[in-house]
Amino acid sequence: MEATKELYNERITRIKKAIKLEKNDRTPVIPFVDAFLATATGVKLSDFVLDLNKSHEVMIDGTKLLGDIDAASGSCSTAQLSGMICLSNLKLPGRELPDNMLWQIDEREVMTTDDYDTILNNGFEVFQANYHSTRINVDLAAVGEWALKCPQFDKDMKDEGYPIYLGGAISHPIDYLSGGRTMGKFMVDLRRMPDKIEAVMDVITDANIKAMKQVVKNAVEPVTVFVAMARACPDFYNPKMWERFIWKYLKKITEAIIETGIPASFHVDANWERGLDYFREFPKGTCVFETDGTTDIYKIKEKLGDRMCIKGDVHAAKLALGTPDEVYNYSTQLIKDMGTGFILSSGCSVPANAKLENVKAMIAAATGK
C-alpha cells in the first residue's frame, strides 16, 4: 500500500508540473479511454454502460492493463449521462443498439422555443428536472446510482495508485441548447432572438458554475475540471457571434474554475485555430488545451505553448489502423517537439477498435518502458 501511495504521489506531481509548465522528470501520458477499456478487457459495451459496478471493474482492470499511465480518465462509465448534456435522447448498447455498438446521441427537435421562457422564469435546474423526467429517455435511477457510488469508485482508483484526471466537469450552454433544439434550429434561433438566447445562456452558465463548484468540493483530489464545448468551434460562427455567444461564457466558466484552485481542461473538438489567441487571457499555468487532432497541435504550441499545458494528440486512426512503430514514432516526435508543459494523450477518446499494442506503444514513448 505504501508503494502504491508513493506511485500515486509521483504521478500527480508529474501532472501538476506539466500543467504549470515546470521542468519534469518525463512527459506524463494520460490516454482518454472509456469504451476501449471494455473491448480491451473482453467486456461487452452493453455491460459496460448498463452495469455501473461492472464499468468500475473495467476502468480499474483496463487502466492497470495499460500499465504505467499517469492518471485514469475516470472510475466508471458516464455514457448514461450523455443525453443530459445534450438535452437529447440517447441510444445505448444492449437497450436500443446491439451489445457492442457505441452509444449514440439521437439528436432531434425535443426542446421548443417556449422552453427559453421556462428557463428564464423558473431557472435551469427546475427546467432540467422536468425535461429529463418527461421528454428524454434519461434513466434517473441510473443517474442516482452514479452520484451515490462515484465518490467511492474514485477512492478505489486512487488506492490503485492512479489520480483521476477529470475530477469534475462543466458544459458550455451551447451544447445543451444546440442539442435540444438541434444545431440547425438553434442557429436560426440565434438570428431571430439573440437577446433571449443570451439571457438563457446567462442562466444556464450560472447554474452550471454552481453545480461544478459543488462537484469539485466533493471530489477525491481532482486534477482538472473538464470543460465540454463540442458545438463551440470558432469555425461554426462568424467572429462577432462567437465572441458574444461562445467566448463570453467560456471565459466566465474558466475563470470560475480557476477560482477553485483547480486547472481547467478544455476538451477542444474540431478546428480552433481561429480562436487560439483568446486563450492567452488566462493566467499562465492554470489551463490545459486538449485537442482531438483536428486543430494543428504545432499551431497550438506556437500560440499558447508559453501560457498553458497542451494535451494530445495521437489520432484515433493511428491507434486503430496504424502499427506500433508508427504510433511510437509519432508519439516520440510529439514529446520532443512539444517540450515542457505537455501531456501525451490520444486525440479525443481512444476508439473502441484501437489495437492494444498501439495504445501501449504510445505509453512506451513517454515512459521508456
From TrEMBL:
Q: Which residues form the Uroporphyrinogen decarboxylase (URO-D) domain?
A: 179-366
Q: Which SUPFAM superfamilies match?
A: UROD/MetE-like
InterPro entries from the UniProt entry: Methanogen_methyltrans, UROD/MetE-like_sf, Uroporphyrinogen_deCOase
Reading the lineage from the top rank, the first entry is: Bacteria
Q: What name does UniProt use for this protein?
A: Uroporphyrinogen decarboxylase family protein
Give the organism's phylogenetic lineage. Bacteria, Bacillati, Bacillota, Clostridia, Eubacteriales
